[in-house]
Amino acid sequence: MSERDTGMDGARRDPELESARGGVPADHPEVAERGTPVVDHAPSHAGEPVVPIHGDRAEKAKPLNVLGTRQRKTDGLEKSTGRARYTDDLVLPGMLHGKILRSPHPHARIVSIDTAAAEALPGVHGVVTGAEMPVPFGIIVWTPDENALATDKARYIGDGVAAVAAVDEETANRALELIRVEYEVLEPIFDPFEAARRTDVQIHEARKEGHNGNISKIVKLDFGEVDAGLADSDVVIEGEYFFEGTTHTPIEPHCAIGQWEAGGAPGGRLTVWSSTQVPHYLHRELARVLELDAAKIRVVQPHVGGGFGGKSEPFDLEFCVAKLAIKTGRPVKILYTREEVFLAHRGRHPFHMKYRVGAAADGKLKAVDARTLLDGGAYSSFGLVTTYYSGQLLAAPYEIPAYRFDSTRVFTNKPACGPKRGHGSVQPRFAFEVTLDKLAERLGIDPIELRRRNFMGSFRRTVNELRVTSNGFMECLDAVERASGWKERRGKLGYGRGLGVAGSCYISGTNYPIYPNRMPQSAVQLQVDRSGRVAVFSGASDIGQGSTSLVAYIVCEELGVPLDYVRVLPSDTDFTPVDLGSYSSRVTFMLGNACVDAARKLKRMVQDAVGAEWGIPTNRVLLAGGRAMDGQDTGRSMSIVEAFNLAEAKHGTLGTVGSYNTPRDVHGDYRGGTIGASPAYSFTAHVAEVEVDADTGFVDVKAIWVAHDCGRALNPAIVEGQMEGSAYMGFAEALMEQHVFKDADHGRAGLHNAPSLLDYRIPTSLDTPELRSLIVESIDPEGPYGAKEAGEGPLHPSIPAIANAIFDAVGVRMDSLPFSPPRVWRALQEQAAARDEPERIAAD
Amino acid sequence: MKDLVTLTVNGDTHQVAVPTHWTLLETLRYGIQLTGSKQGCDKGDCGACTVWLDGVPTLACITPVFEAEGRQVRTVEGLVGFRSGPGVAHPLQDAFDLCGAAQCGFCTPGILMSAAALLEENAGPTRDEIKEALSGNLCRCTGYTKILDAVELAAERMRQAEVEA
Question: What is the 3-state secondary structure (H, E, C) of chain B?
């Protein structure tokens, strides 16, 4: 009997045998897939102690001169005066305008493309189709399932099929209308449950014989004894949750410019300017898809007008400007329309989640069992990681002794989902923190107290072997409890008004890069001029979060130069060392450590030269306030410029390189155990206060108190900005945002429902609640000066805190997003009907 | 089809040939290289393109360029020196920098034009009045908190400067 003929009736089979054979999961008949082990079982590591690999908390807690104070950003005034140049602000001589033709069908085979009429149109300089860029790519090296332009099939309404370059935008648009594409229309699938079940319609070709091409990834992991834990629980809370898809909507639409220099010394050199968050990955993928030597490609990232994860992989426009520039010999720019930004998407996956959480009567968690279906859209994107993150990142800040998750990501004929701020872990955090609230209610325990009782502690391993170092979660709970007046006010606000709490954790980057290599994850190069000016070459991508300013502050701290003596050249692959990009909240931790490394090497040279000049030990030389000083004789000092000049005379031209690499042997000892492993974890707690209008179902969030353990706030103003922006974005998802598509009853099936900033509702200044930031500093031994991330973690608790506050206000559970007036109103109606039911029966 | 348009922007008069259907925003950005005003949506939803037309905040992306002829246009570049000496940033621009009100900075030019217009009319706006004035400008980074703080700070400083003068 072949493998193909077995397994569909798997319920009768031994699960272990199923696993060994890779058959259909015995407990999961609704997913038609083979070849994935049923469950990878691993022992629980909950509560095991952790020892820091390097660094010293006491040393890192020392007072600092520049870091820790509110500073201007290096590019703040440049941005507020309109001088900052973003990609679309750049104009090159002879530049052409590009446009991309997009599929009107959600699922169709491309039979032929006729570009002759478009090419013949006056003003058109070049047309390109997928056949000219046949090499597939993917941000995750194991799942390259995209093409620069579709080669065989279009998989969503908006999939790119051809591109043109013309003298102006109008001509380019007219040329698109002249391209004739013959499609063989295929049946589309929009529903993730249907995609998992069906094998007759295949969105992608199955990777192996007998597999289901609609399945993107299945992860089943089991730690400790879950069934025993649930059986042993005094209370088990079961629930089903739905997290709606949402998208990033940075205010800057994606834009790219390609330039090709043929002949001469460059001998064929490609430059791409792009609004990307990941210049290094773009560099690699351009080389791969265009089949060019990477050394002949330069990627420059100008100022980026927001990303939030929506610009963290290559997009069709970057390949198209490059290819069209090569074909036409002219620079080519493509600027997405706002509608195209919605189609490019890569936003939050819709999650369908089932949770069973068991606890003892005192509220201590015993076991968690989670099952999740992820609606991935048309392509893999980061989906392999998303599927792991949907389970892996739930394991802190509470001690969970036994944990199982079973996550399946499927393809559907909609724009691809990917990483949005809090990648893959915002959705399960919503389900879990609402479950904790239900648990607290059932057991009659205060929800903050319940969370305290389950705190995992600092320097401990989680059930799935995440290595947690510093952990300020308890201080976060204390801070929001105090600031919100929780003890005094909760339960005393009257019907319609309520308070809710939630907590979370997040990674500060990942121990393992998304393409396997052992080189540093981040690097910085410093160079000193005789004027005292320090140049910093930084590969990191500043997308508004302030990474360019961060390296400048570190240089000021270590070398004692004033901020206006530091110039930072960021993100230009020809000149800056590699940093892997602005994603997974890795930048402060990794770039910060790299910059400290470079700055301290330089500092030692300066101390050495000045110490020799004065005849004192090196470590007595202090650099601060623009001067070099004798630490034991404040009367003896010289300007930092003189000190630099002495050092240059002694050591030669002053320049250093610093880098940071993650520990490489720190991960879970099971398949997938590298995913979720981070050098440090951040922690957050929120309290939300809401007022619910029972007549309309309108939820007015009055305030959100956000306490976040960022390790150490290197610039408190920037950290607060990240916390406020995160809380805002979570609030927006909780109440307003829906990235949804039409069905056949409401227009063309699969068409984006609302691809504009008016119809896809995001909060204005009037909608946004008061956001109160409370910084908690746990001082991480391995972070730069003790710092961890602040950009994504603070988003997570917004949504469950609001859901829990709604319950506190009016007594209805909101288990599906968003908490829009119709849904809240309906929940209130159902609550009233349920309340009236016994009375009606009694009356009968 | 191109036509000549005469625009007065930040006090300078420009004569440029533009396609007749161009908007004021396209002309500012691609005709006279004043790229401070941004295009976020190109249909009047986001406010990143906000400029002043005769002192009134206006969405340049839905204003046909010929409607701006004969009127005074002011952009974010023209806020520099407007309330301060030549080349000196407007108190709002400085306050945005000081407070960290610009993260990615893409909505900032439009927000500054809305906020500056408010402060011309109302030297001491309440926080709610500031929210109202900025409600047509979307920001995706900040949660608006630092922006509101910056406008309050700038208003206070401008009032103080009035008293001192």
Answer: CEEEEEEEECCEEEEEEEECCCEHHHHHHHHCCCCCCCCCCCCCCCCCCEEEECCEEEEHHHCEHHHHCCCEEECHHHHCCCCCCCCCCCHHHHHHHHHCCCCCCCCHHHHHHHHHHHHHHCCCCCHHHHHHHCCCCCCCCCCCHHHHHHHHHHHHHHHHHHHHC
Q: Tell me which residues of chain A have a pLDDT lower than 70.
A: 1-39, 839-844
Q: Tell me, what amino acid is at A790?
A: A
Q: Do residue A251 and residue B94 have CB atoms under 8 angstroms apart? A: no
CA distance A725 to chain B (A): 4
Counting one residue from chain A and one from chain B, the pairs whose CB atoms sit within 8 A come to: 182
A424: left (phi over 0), alpha (psi -120 to 50) or beta: left
Q: Position of tokens 């007219």?
A: A174
Let me know how long chain A is.
844
Helices (H) and strands (E) in chain A, counts: 21, 29
Closest residue to B98, CB basis, from A72, A249, A303: A72
- What residue of B is the nearest CA neighbor of A304? B104
User: Is there a contact between A717 and B109 if contact means CB atoms under 8 Å apart?
Assistant: no
pLDDT of the residue at A718: 98
Which strands make up the sheet holding A153-154, listed edge to edge?
Answer: A153-154, A108-114, A180-185
Determine the Cα–Cα distance for residues A711 and A801; give it in Å rounded to an integer: 23
Chain A residue numbers touching B30 (CB-CB < 8 A): 91
Structure tokens at A351: 């999650």
Chain A residue with minimal CA distance to B41? A338
Q: What is the pLDDT of residue A634?
A: 83
Please give the pLDDT value at position A14. Answer: 36
- Note the pLDDT of residue A211: 85
Of A82, A83, A725, the CB nearest to B141: A725
- pLDDT at residue number A207: 80
> What does the pLDDT read at residue B111?
98
Q: Which residues of B touch A252 (CB under 8 A)?
A: 38, 40, 104, 106
Q: How far is CA A364 from CA A753, A756, B81, in A?
A: 44, 46, 63
Nearest neighbour of B103 by CB, restricted to A335, A337, A545: A545
pTM, two decimals, is 0.95
Q: Is the pLDDT of residue B50 over 60?
A: yes
Q: Do B141 and A721 touch (CB under 8 A)?
A: yes
| Beta-strand runs (E) in A103-210 | 108-114, 124-129, 153-154, 160-166, 180-185
Question: Which tokens sit at A140?
Answer: 């995750």
pLDDT tens sequence across A383-412: 999 999 999 999 999 999 999 999 999 999
Mutate to test the interface with B, among A73, A173, A765 (most CBs of B within 10 A): A765
Q: What percent of chain B has pLDDT over 90?
A: 96
In single-letter form, the type of residue at position A604 comes to R
The phi and psi torsions of A559 (rounded to 5 degrees) equal -105, -5
